[in-house]
Design goal:
Keywords: ATP-binding, Kinase, Magnesium, Nucleotide-binding, Transferase. By secondary structure, the protein is of the alpha/beta class. It contains nine helices and ten strands. It has helices spanning about 20-30, 60-70, 90-105, 130-140, 150-155, 165-175, 225-235, 240-260, 275; strands at about 5-15, 35-45, 55, 80-85, 110-115, 145, 180-185, 195-200, 205-210, 285. The chain is globular. The N and C termini lie far apart (about 40 Å). Bound molecules: adenosine-5'-diphosphate (ADP), pyridoxal-5'-phosphate and magnesium ion. Adenosine-5'-diphosphate binds next to helix 7.
Length: about 290
């Protein structure tokens, strides 16, 4: 029997609704991965409500919890680390030390970094020091990087002029360490008005994927966290980069369709659980010639 992969997921927890681990853990479990959730913050709700209670958890918890898992002899069973929303740069550094420790115990383990930098206009609030940490330190350690367009722009310190330019920008990150860059949402001049576009860039090539752009009265939150979580889960289950990319796009689209049908602001992950595992839609990514 094939072994079930194990994944350490280090990101935010919200008590109400879905963002960070609250958006990613259940779907990753549902597709068949053992998840070890480690929370960076515990907030009442995601920050795009404009108000929340709760706190950033002490950075010392991260090495202490990793040490606890090492002490029971389980650290070598960790196949991947995922990091997302961070409450402080110090937490970020603790994650990089944890990644080094896990890779020493299991050299095949991979680190996927979703560089959540915040989006003040949208109300996604992240401390500024976290962005500097992601730009300067995390990128060099990550095996896989999953930025949105704003985050890709921050890494490259400029905006793209075209789709080809988005590829150039994503590819430039490969030179800084990651083996794959998944851009979860492309924004560039001249893009299709009815499409939601994504990009996958590896040393083997660049793939572009379009899915329908859905209308929402308020943009749902946690979509990025869900995307990177499902992408990593499917990689661990043995998918190729391309198959995991296409799967994540389809499963996330299913969740958004369910969310739209329920006129819900929060992602309808529980209602969509079967559709996550068996998406009815399929989006084929196109290999780009540049
Ligand atoms: N198919 C879709 N139609 C409409 N909006 C979408 C679709 N998929 C994702 N979104 C929205 O697009 C936005 C993507 O946000 P962005 O800041 O680029 O990435 P992230 O989700 O990591 O924050 C989110 O607000 C999400 O709700
Ligand atoms: C607590 C928390 N975690 C994570 C996120 C990231 O969500 P997304 O997947 O939309 O990037 C947000 C965004 O506001 C948030 O408030
Ligand atoms: Mg995000």
């Amino acid at each position: 029997m094939k072994r079930t992969p194990h994944l350490l997921a280090i990101q935010s927890h919200v008590v109400f609704g879905h963002a960070g681990n609250g958006a990613a853990v259940f779907p990753m479990q549902r597709v068949g991965v053992n998840v070890w959730p480690l929370n960076t913050v515990q907030f009442s709700n995601h920050t795009q409500y404009g108000q929340w209670t709760g706190e950033v958890l002490a950075p010392a918890q991260i090495p202490a919890l990793v040490e606890g898992i090492a002490a029971i002899g389980e650290l070598g069973n960790c196949d991947a680390v995922l990091s997302g929303y961070l409450g402080s740069a110090e937490q970020g550094r603790a994650i990089l030390s944890g990644v080094a420790r896990i890779k020493a115990a299991n050299p095949k383990a991979i680190y996927l970094c979703d560089p959540v930098m915040g989006h003040p206009e949208k109300g996604c609030i992240v401390p500024a020091e976290v962005s500097s940490f992601l730009l300067e330190e995390a990128v060099a350690v990550a095996d896989v990087l999953c930025p949105n367009q704003l985050e890709l722009d921050s890494f490259c310190d400029r905006r793209p002029t075209s789709l080809e330019d988005c590829v150039v920008m994503a590819r430039s990150l490969l030179a800084r360490g990651p083996k794959a860059v998944l851009v979860k949402h492309l924004v560039y001049p001249g893009r299709g008005a009815d499409d939601f576009e994504m990009l996958l860039v590896t040393a083997q090539g660049s793939w572009h994927l379009r899915r329908p752009l859905l209308a929402f009265p308020r943009q749902p939150v946690g979509v990025g966290d869900l995307t990177s979580g499902l992408f990593l889960a499917r990689l661990l289950l043995g998918d190729s980069w391309l198959a995991a990319f296409e799967f994540a796009a389809a499963a996330v689209h299913e969740v958004l369709l369910e969310t739209q049908a329920c006129a819900s602001y929060e992602l309808e992950l529980v209602r969509a659980q079967d559709r996550i595992v068996h998406p009815r839609v399929r989006f084929e990514a196109q290999l780009l010639g540049y």
